[in-house]
Amino acid sequence: MEGRENLLKELNNAFASCDINFLANSVTNDIQWIIVGEKTISGKKDFEKSLVKMSQGGPLNITVLEIITQKEKSVVEGIVEFMVEPGKKRKYAFCDVYIFSDTDKNKVKELRTYVTQIKKA
Question: What pTM does this model have?
Fold first, then answer.
């Protein structure tokens, strides 16, 4: 599963650097991105639109803490940090569940994102 782990690292680096082309080329046309408790983004076109909106906030800092892979599913746990306004950062803990296509093992057909803000102690 080392190849899958490398792909997941590349995907997270692409999210961090707002590499929309890489991300769009890594999903199926019927991608489902479920941001649990928030919304579901359906289809590649809407996925790309969401990435463009995300990129307007600028690059993110993503720290991957753990990657677990098994068959067509993989889980990435980490911390994401970004600027919400000049001089003000926010941190979130996230867990992404990637489900890969049956026909193209390197394309994501579903992404489930669980995210919560890390509040200061």
Answer: 0.90
Instruction: Tell me which DSSP letter residue 103 carries.
Output: S
CA–CA gap between residue 23 and residue 10 (Å, rounded): 9
How far does CA 36 lie from the centroid of its chain? 13
pLDDT digits (tens, 9 = 90+) for 63-89: 999 999 998 999 999 999 887 777 788
**Alpha helix locations (H) across the chain?**
2-17, 20-24, 44-55
d(CA 52, CA 100): 23
Residue 58 phi/psi, 5-degree rounding, is 90, 175
Compute the 3-state secondary structure of the chain and give helix, strand, coil in percent, each to the nearest 5.
Answer: 25, 50, 25
- Residue 50 and residue 25: Cα distance in Å, rounded? 15
From residue 121, how far is each of 6, 118 by CA, in Å? 34, 9
